[in-house]
Amino acid sequence: MKQFIIFVRKEFAHVLRDRKTLLILFGLPVVQIMIFGFALTNEVKNSKIIIVDYAKDIASQELTAKIEASRYFEIERSVMGPEKMDKAFKEGKIKIAVVFPENFNHDLLQQNKGTIQIIADASDPNIANTLNTYLSSIITDYQTEFNSPRVMPYRITPETRMLYNPQLKGVHNFVPGVMALVLMLVCVMMTAISIVKEKETGTMEILLVSPFKPILVIVSKAVPYLILSLVNVTSILLLSVFVLDLPINGSVFLLFAESTLFIITCLSLGLLISIKTQSQQIAMLISLMGMLLPTLLFSGFMFPIENMPWPLQWISNVIPAKWFYIIVKSIMIKGLGFSAIWKETAILSGLTIFLVAVSIKNFKIRLA
Amino acid sequence: MRTIKFLLQKEFRQIFRNKAIVIIILAVPIVQLLILPLAANYEVKNINLSVVDNDHSDYSQKLVSKITSSGYFRLTGFNTSFKDAFKLIESDKADLILEIPHGFEQDLIKEKEQKLFVAVNAINGTKANLGGAYLNTITRNFNDDIRVQLMEPGKFNTSAAIEITSSNWFNPLMNYRIFMVPGILAILVTMIGGYLSALNIVKEKEIGTIEQINVTPIKKYHFILGKLIPFWILGLIVFSLGLVVSWLVYGIIPLGSILLLFGFVAVYLLAVLGLGLLISTFCDTQQQAMFIAFFFLMIFILMGGLFTPIDSMPDWAKVITKLNPVSYMIDVMRMIILKGSGLKDVQYHLYTIMLFAIVLNSWAVWNYKKTS
After folding, report:
1. Who has the most CB within 10 Å: A92, B68, B84, B198?
2. Mind telling me how many Å the CA of B86 is from chain A's nearest CA?
């Protein structure tokens, strides 16, 4: 036991000596939380719009004022002619254009019919769709107003409630995702690289010939990263509660227990990579390409899994981060208890046991 | 000039000796372009809808069938109470609940006004936004249908109607992949250029071979140029590979000039490589370089407007995107490939990236010290 403590102390000294890496390790979650919490949003607002007004009458001006008042749109300028409009789109700032034909007001009054053309930059289909819907509803509102005082009878008004996330912030998706990503980064990459580094510099040999049990050499390497990760989890949670105002709706204890389980999964993955590789660069590339990329892709926090073709959906099932992400989301945001996530926990535990078993089976006391 | 030639020879030999790097250069663009656009599909369809129909009338059924036939929604089931439906939301089986109140049809006819209750699982913002908007549009259409049915035709015609015709430019089929592929090409070039150059000088530091170079009469800028040019060529090769893959797999052919596209990428690569080399001169171990490069590239990519619109960001974040080379690159890729923009349209972007390239590379040369 005393030996073990001394080994852990040696590992801590290694980790704490590299100030730059340490700074990144603690800075990364903070910066990520800030970016996700304050800069990125799925909400569509302040989109640049141009008004092509051939009518220049009371109706077109009233409608333009309504569009200007909406927070979704920002009127860039008014242009005339199709070439000018085409150029505005190609310069890339304009997302949507509205064209009022000549005699718009006149037609509306005399023939009870006016036509408005909307042209959207559909290179981003979702934004084009959303803006189109917003603009249409502004126009329809105006139409109702135009016809008043005759109030339209038989009116159905949908009352929409946004559950869990009334402001449609991105944080609710991202905080659990950032947790998974950072834990993966710290545990898998750091563990793998630090063990392989000992191999590369030749110090591993010295450790293995010592009277200390070889498996404990590896375990003592994992301890500092386990603690670092728990510190990171704590800082992410503190930031999200106090800076982002995202409360933890479920049990904090359960959240930490599940995090520890996921950390152990990651550590065993890092261990497995370090057993299989001989150089730092390869260990890095495998952890980056083989672990981080799938985590980003398949955990479901950046890319919707249900839209993927079925082979990718199937692959996502063996990515531990996916299950961890579901667990954290359920506990933190939905405030569910263990009974709701026992299945995910069981799958995650199964994956962990499998990884630990494979690592132990492949672990060799002698270097090649 | 002769010095640089020999340095280039050395660098190319080292790169091609390392099989792992060659594989990465060839495989990564193909794999990324094949998997990422499939995965990064934010197209919103098949929104899972759970209906709580307390009315069971002709109208409520018509409304539900109108919603399900729109193609955006997938009916997961009818529930008898809101509580049951809410359980489906908790377990992620439903995204949206539509509750039709008791007496919907009767009250609509009698009191001429009626409400519907919609609850959206808003954890996924995009889906919630669009799902809610779609449902509103469908309800409005349904509303219009009913109005026509219930009112005498003559009375209805007296009110003015505005007809809206909308057209979608640059991507008329609204295919999400067409939007993602140019952005992913931008990320690809950034990652390959950034990582490879960041790891390179540090590796020489770690194994100690940099000492041997430092004692030769090679000038600082010779050394940096010798490191820069091979990766610059590799970056352009990777980009061409990416263009070919996106043409073969997704049928995307740049609308704008290919020459302009390559010209811009060539300048952009200089900027990214400069950033990598700068990181490299600051670090002592490959581990550090890796983490620092990861840190910056991650911020740049997230803030580059690939996944979320820059227009919606707060002002301080918009200032950061001005200092982010990746955001210019993503913008220009989309402009030239999808919209066919010309040199005049992208000149602001081009000059800014040139400035980035000059500043980053001079900083890297300045910061590289031959004596420790």
Report:
1. B198
2. 10
CB A264 within 8 A of CB A185: no
Q: Do B123 and A28 touch (CB under 8 A)?
A: no
Mean pLDDT per 10-residue interval, chain A, length 368 residues: 84 84 84 79 78 84 86 78 79 83 83 83 80 82 70 66 64 77 81 82 80 80 87 88 82 90 90 82 76 75 74 84 87 82 89 87 69
Contact A92 B143 (CB under 8 A): no
| Residue in B97, B92, B57, B105 with CA at minimum distance from that of residue B73 | B97
Residue B59: HSE in the Cβ half-sphere, 13 Å Cα cutoff: 25
Structure pTM? 0.78
Kindly state whether residues B120 and B200 are assigned to the same domain.
Answer: no
Q: Look at residues A87, A75, A82 and name the one whose alpha carbon lies nearest to residue A50.
A: A75
pLDDT digits over B173-184, tens only?
777 778 888 888
Q: Count of domains in chain B? A: 2
User: Are B112 and A289 inside 8 Å of each other by CB?
Assistant: no
Domain with A199 in it = 2-40+169-362
* φ, ψ for residue A77, nearest 5 deg: -175, 175
Kindly state the tokens that stand for A324: 């961890």
Question: Between A120, A193, A302, which is nearest B307 by CB?
Answer: A302
Question: CA-to-CA distance for B356 and B267, rounded, in angstroms?
Answer: 9
Residue A187 lies in a domain: yes
Nearest to B283 among A20, A44, A113 (CB): A20
